[in-house]
Amino acid sequence: MAASTSPLVWDFFRELGSSVGVKTGGVAHYYDETAQTIFLNGGLKTRLSDPASGQWKTAELSAPSQFVNTLDYIKLDLDHPANGTLYMAAVKADGTLQFLRYQYAADIGALVQQATFTSQVDNPITQINVSVKNVSNELFDSGGTLFNPGARLSTGVALGDSEVYPIGVAYLDDIQHDPLGSTVSVSGRNAIGYFLKEASFGGDHVFKLAYQEICNTLFKLAGVPRFEAMPGAGACDYDFKPEDSVLEGF
């Protein structure tokens, strides 16, 4: 097959900082929503970003840098061959070669014994309950477990040998793990229920802003990680009750 006439070319660079000793390890992209730089500077450090639609060039980096560990690495390389696991190879000052693995997602379709969705016509909150096979206690109890409250669960359905069709995202609320049990009960809610239902206004309950600015403020107040509010014109006054949920505010 002939080579492409329009190869992928990186025609820009990002500066991580001017600190002495910064050595870039690389950039890992997770789907098209999140990315992170991983580099050496007194240990393994990272800075996060949310490149909208994969546009890394204009994305903002988090600051300050966060330590992953403080080991004395002098060289670092990383590989991200498939979504779900990031692999790294690092060389320490004494010449020791270490391999590191960061698993941030996994397909648990083969482990799901039963899953139910509960929704109502007059309620925007969808509840999900999943029974997962207890194939390994370490899968649920280890320090790096993916089964933590707040973890994001993408759901889909396949008919016969068809592709998987996405049907929603749930955020885990509760994980009931019995080491002696054959299954593990996992429950969660859609983003509306998980973020907006539990967050209340408290002291920040009076607004005099444009509609779009109020929406942005409410999403941030509720801790929603990603959102997009359509542009709107005109300022408006709102005085919510401090005990109201953000969902009631919307």
Q: Give the termini distance in whole angstroms.
A: 54 Å
| Number of helices, where a helix is a run of at least 4 consecutive DSSP H or I residues | 4
Structural class: mainly beta
Neighbour order of strands in the largest sheet: 8-9-12-11-10
The radius of gyration over CA amounts to 22 Å
User: What is the residue-averaged pLDDT?
Assistant: 85
**Topology pattern, helix = H, strand = E:** EEEEEEEEEHEEEHEHEH
Overall helicity: 10-25%
Question: What does this molecule look like?
Answer:
The chain has 250 residues and is mainly beta. 11% of the residues lie in helices and 42% in strands. It has 4 helices and 14 strands. It has helices at 137-141, 191-196, 211-222, 246-249; strands at 23-30, 34-40, 44-49, 66-69, 73-82, 85-92, 97-103, 112-120, 123-133, 152-157, 165-176, 183-189, 206-210, 235-239. The protein has a 5-stranded antiparallel β-sheet. A 4-stranded antiparallel β-sheet has the order 1-2-3-4, with no helix packed on it. The termini are far apart. The model has no long low-confidence stretch (mean pLDDT 85).
Main traits of this protein?
14 strands; 42% strand; five-stranded antiparallel sheet; 4 helices; four-stranded antiparallel sheet; single chain; mainly beta; 250 residues
Sequence-ordered SSE layout with sheet pairings:
Layout: E1 23-30, E2 34-40, E3 44-49, E4 66-69, E5 73-82, E6 85-92, E7 97-103, E8 112-120, E9 123-133, H1 137-141, E10 152-157, E11 165-176, E12 183-189, H2 191-196, E13 206-210, H3 211-222, E14 235-239, H4 246-249
Antiparallel strand pairs: 1-2, 2-3, 3-4, 5-6, 6-7, 8-9, 9-12, 10-11, 11-12, 13-14
